[in-house]
Amino acid sequence: MSDYPAVAVAHCRALARQHYENFPVASWLLPLRLRDPVAVIYAFARQADDLADEGDLSAEQRLAALDRMRQQLLGLEQGLPGEEPVFQALAYFIPRYSLPVDLFLDLLSAFSQDVSKTRYAHIGELMDYCRRSANPVGRLLLHLQGQATPQNLALSDGVCSALQLTNFLQDIHQDLTENDRIYIPQDELVKFQVSEQQLHERFSNTAMRRLMNHQIHRAERMLRAGAPLGKALTGRFGFEIRMTILGGSRILSALKRSEDCFSRPRLSRGDWLWMAWHALRKG
């Protein structure tokens, strides 16, 4: 086992703090021993996500950069040292916690898909994307905690996919205008008679509200189905998971109440206090 990569881990912690999230990342809620590996996992995902979305790179350059990340990841399996801080940190934590490299590869697959695929024909396509873009994070957390049982992994997948769908609903206009992406299934846009032009114009009418309610109800069902995970896990890790699930539920409730279908709710201090109270009571 190599020496602890303090400088690389500090880089990952700084990267995690740079980005606003509705849900806590490597926060004080987590057990102390998990905060650094969680920050490293988040930094890996953040770096890949930024390569897919940020800056002025061409599609070919983005895919090439993501492929370099993939090659560095595969190199770690062969005992090769990481070239960048994120991979130097992963080289320490992957063997320490027996983290499946395939889960990191799934994340890279999803971010590469973001570069080339901008529409989803039906919910099956979208859920396959969630399987690779969101579910690996929950699975990695369970492996860190030594709680990666088949039942916990299945519950985690439901929670993570629901949270991913929730994020899509918060960013409909931004995803379309900034990256020409629509994460609402095309067949459902047709079913509810909502056009892409309407999404561009941020036009909230009865059709758009019916479409949104359909998406919200799906995410709520998935979140409720995965919610027993928060009660199955104990200690600060279980508390963190319950807070995350409750946060997703509060965001979905705010989306449901809003007259503006393109609003982006943020959790208030009152929301956090409500979540903490209910999380302490195990949801």
Notes on the structure:
With 283 residues, the chain is mainly alpha-helical. The chain contains 15 helices and no strands. It has helices at 6-17, 32-53, 59-77, 85-97, 101-116, 123-133, 135-145, 150-170, 172-179, 186-191, 196-200, 206-226, 228-232, 235-257, 269-280. Helix 2 (32-53) crosses helix 4 (85-97) and helix 12 packs antiparallel against helix 14. The longest helix has 23 residues, at 235-257. It is globular. Mean pLDDT is 91; it is low at 22-26.
Number of strands: 0
Structural class: mainly alpha
Largest sheet, if any? none
So what's the CATH class of the largest domain? Answer: Mainly Alpha
Q: In DSSP terms, counting alpha (H) and pi (I) runs of 4 or more, how many helices?
A: 15
CATH topology of the largest domain: Farnesyl Diphosphate Synthase
In one word, what is the shape?
Answer: globular
Order of helices and strands: HHHHHHHHHHHHHHH
CATH architectural name of the largest domain? Orthogonal Bundle
Lay out the secondary structure.
Elements: H1 6-17, H2 32-53, H3 59-77, H4 85-97, H5 101-116, H6 123-133, H7 135-145, H8 150-170, H9 172-179, H10 186-191, H11 196-200, H12 206-226, H13 228-232, H14 235-257, H15 269-280
Tag the structure with descriptive keywords.
single chain; 283 residues; mainly alpha; Farnesyl Diphosphate Synthase; 2 domains; 15 helices
